[in-house]
Specification:
Helix content is about 25%, strand content about 40%. The chain contains ten helices and 21 strands.
């Protein structure tokens, strides 16, 4: 057996030097090289105790060689000069025999990026298994004292991504991220939440554990209500799972080709443009690509080297632009936007409790689970409520209800938003909780 050499977490200078030396090895007409390296750790727990502790170092160097509109990529997990030279040669060999790409775009020249430093938290990068265990113990103790069983994960990651090309493009970002998810169960009651931060110290472990435990206890002995159309309040964690699909649907090519809720058709049903600029959502819906947001502080560039800068996506309910890839922008004479990531939806100063207090009648949804498309063109999805669903009456949580399956056209949901709460971060998105005037439930389910 031969041991594979993997580098420890690289410095920015070392990563860029490694990329530069790899680019110089190339004899292709063009070459693009990237490095991803990081330290990742995970603590998994169930039944109020840790069951797994994992830490790993990851490293991947990818080389894409170009000859005209033909290309091929090779990746390696070691960085000795001989291994890199072999990988470069292999990518060139494969590129020469690859089929032509009809949507090929030339490599980007050097770019100008925002003058900022993405969030990198040393405490998150160096957090020990013992420190993670203590945070998990805190959540499990709260659950145990209340007679519930806690399960979930606590993860931390420090990563570096760097790119270089034969056109002189060169960039590097470091970042950190921590994530905590928790489910509490007791009998026929359950609750769940998840949150993300760039610093592990920003995760409100005790506060979230108390919230989840309280909801789990309150969700016992749920009552059945008939399916139908109801006003709902979506917790931010539930809303994040749904609104992301709306943002994904703002793709210019899909709209122009008639495959999206943003498509426009002529009298014969053929594609005739898109609905950019049209107010199709509630005026409360304000969405931006905002990598500088204090809850995100994300990288300055995307995987291909294009700039990750501020962009208005939806203003007063009207999409301001659609997501244009470099290829589709060239076809349509538009400016390429890059992906709509990370996105931020504006909220208010109200808490979730404030919103419930001024709601006469609605269903409260803690979690949207097993969400899948029914019709990708209209962005209609089906899914289920889970882990704490409640009936709201007279500004209060009245009683728990059995979970419901929903079939919902998501653009209609966004149109019917009539109130928003303060924002929180979930994964790579920052969103509020929302109240929606009408949400379509089709059946009762037996899931917790």
């Amino acid at each position: 057996m031969t041991a594979t050499t993997s580098p420890a977490f690289l410095s920015e200078d070392r990563a860029l030097a490694l990329l530069d030396s790899t680019v110089k090895m190339s004899s292709a007409e063009g070459v693009f090289v990237s490095i991803y390296t990081g330290e990742e750790s995970l603590s998994r727990f169930s039944e109020n105790q840790i069951g797994q502790n994992i830490s790993k170092t990851v490293f991947k160097l990818s080389i894409t060689s170009y000859f005209g509109n033909k290309s091929a990529s090779v990746s390696v997990t070691e960085f000795e000069e001989g291994a890199l030279a072999s990988a470069v040669a292999r990518s060139e060999e494969l590129a020469r025999i690859a089929p032509p790409d009809p949507e090929w775009m030339p490599l980007l020249p050097p770019q100008i990026y925002d003058d900022r430093v993405p969030a990198f938290d040393e405490a998150t990068a160096t957090v020990s298994p013992l420190a993670r265990a203590e945070m998990v113990r805190q959540a499990c103790a709260i659950a145990s004292q209340a007679g519930t069983e806690a399960s979930g994960t606590l993860s931390a990651k420090a990563s570096l991504y760097a790119i270089a090309s034969s056109t002189g493009l060169r960039a590097c970002n470091r970042s950190t991220e921590a994530d905590f998810s928790l489910t509490a169960r007791t009998g026929d009651g359950s609750s769940w939440t998840e949150t993300t931060a760039w610093s592990i110290c920003q995760l409100p472990i005790a506060q979230l554990a108390e919230q989840v435990v309280d909801r789990a206890l309150a969700s016992r002995q749920p009552r059945a209500i008939p399916p139908g159309v109801y006003p709902v309040i979506l917790d931010g964690a539930a809303f994040a799972k749904l609104v992301a699909r709306v943002i994904w649907g703002l793709d210019a090519r899909a709209a122009d080709e008639g495959r999206s809720f943003m498509s426009v058709a002529d009298a014969s049903g053929k594609p005739a443009g898109n609905r950019a600029g049209e107010r199709i959502f509630s005026p409360l819906v304000q969405v931006q690509r905002d990598p500088v947001h204090p809850l995100l502080r994300s990288g300055t560039f995307f995987g291909d080297g294009s700039s990750n800068n501020y962009l208005e996506i939806i203003k007063d309910g009207a999409p301001q632009t659609l997501a244009y890839s470099r290829y589709w922008a060239a076809q349509k004479g538009k400016e390429a936007t890059g992906v709509f990531y990370p996105f931020v939806m504006s909220g208010s100063s109200e808490s979730l409790a404030d919103l419930i207090a001024r709601t006469d009648r609605a269903i409260f949804i803690s979690r949207a689970w097993y969400v899948n498309y029914v019709n990708p063109k209209t962005s209609e999805v089906t899914g289920m409520t889970r882990d704490g669903t409640f009936w709201i009456e007279g500004g209060k949580i009245a009683y728990p209800i059995k979970n419901l399956r929903f079939n919902q056209i998501l653009p209609d949901m966004m149109r019917d938003v009539d109130a928003v709460t303060e924002v929180k971060r979930y994964g790579s998105s920052v969103v509020p909780g929302v109240r929606v005037k009408a949400f379509n439930f089709t059946s009762v389910t037996d899931s917790l």
